[in-house]
Amino acid sequence: MKRYIAAILVPCLLLQLCGCYSQRVITFKDLPYEVYEDITITINDSLNYIVNDNLTTDEIIMHPENNYCVDVDVLSDHLILVKKSLVKEHGDSSAIIIDTLTIKKSIVQSIEKSEIDEIKTTFLVVGVAAAVVFIGYLIAMSTFHLDFSNINSSSNYR
Questions:
Q1: Distance (Å, rounded) from C-alpha 154 to C-alpha 158?
Q2: Mean pLDDT along residues 134-139
Q3: Structural domain boundaries, residue 78
Q4: Backbone angles phi, psi at 148, to 5 degrees
Q5: Does some domain include residue 85?
Q6: Cα end-to-end span (Å), the chain
Q7: At 157, is the secondary structure helix, strand, or coil?
Q8: How many domains does one find in the chain?
Q9: pTM exceeds 0.70 for this model
Q10: Greatest CA separation found in the chain?
Q11: Does residue 47 contact residue 67 with C-beta atoms inside 8 Å?
């Protein structure tokens, strides 16, 4: 029974690990109309700001090395980012502070959004389904020892 469960769970794990997300480059004009989930703004010095308006405190605490922002405002020659970060205070306590950053558009290297790639997802799901059917066929052939050599291809029925 464990083999059958593993035969289904392994392709599901591969589907999860491969991920069907791709980065789509967006422009400054598109930025105000996007939903702020997993938008990455890269600055010339390879500094990344991750914009997500559904950001939780747990995410900031788990990954304090990331630069998280919850809002973006696009001006004529600047981006205004509302940044949330974790600051260690006296002793073991820490606090989350909200800061406003102003970045010139000229130093922004790229703006990318993570989104699901439908074509890659479709091919991966069809491939996994075909692999599961093939593995099931091989298991059935080895378990039941089916022998098709005695089947006559011409019919003798009249």
A1: 12
A2: 86
A3: 19-116
A4: -105, 15
A5: yes
A6: 46
A7: coil
A8: 1
A9: no
A10: 95
A11: yes
CB-count exposure of residue 69 (10 Å: 0-12, 13-18, 19+): buried
> Which run of H or of E encompasses 137?
helix 118-144
CA separation for the pair 5, 10 (Å, rounded): 9
Q: Report the residue count for the chain.
A: 158
Condensed to tens digits (0 to 9), the pLDDT of residues 9-39 reads 876 776 666 667 777 888 888 776 666 678 8
Phi and psi at residue 85, to the nearest 5°: -145, 160
Domain membership of residue 137 (yes or no) is no
Contact by Cβ (8 Å): 41, 49: yes
| E strands in the chain | 21-25, 39-43, 48-51, 68-74, 78-88, 94-104, 108-116
Report how far residue 63's alpha carbon sits from residue 106's, in angstroms, rounded to the nearest whole number: 28
Q: From the CB of residue 79, how many other CB atoms can be counted at a distance below 10 Å?
A: 23
1 in any annotated domain: no
CB 117 within 8 A of CB 128: no
Encoded tokens for 20 = 């069907």
Report yes or no on 152 lying in a domain. no
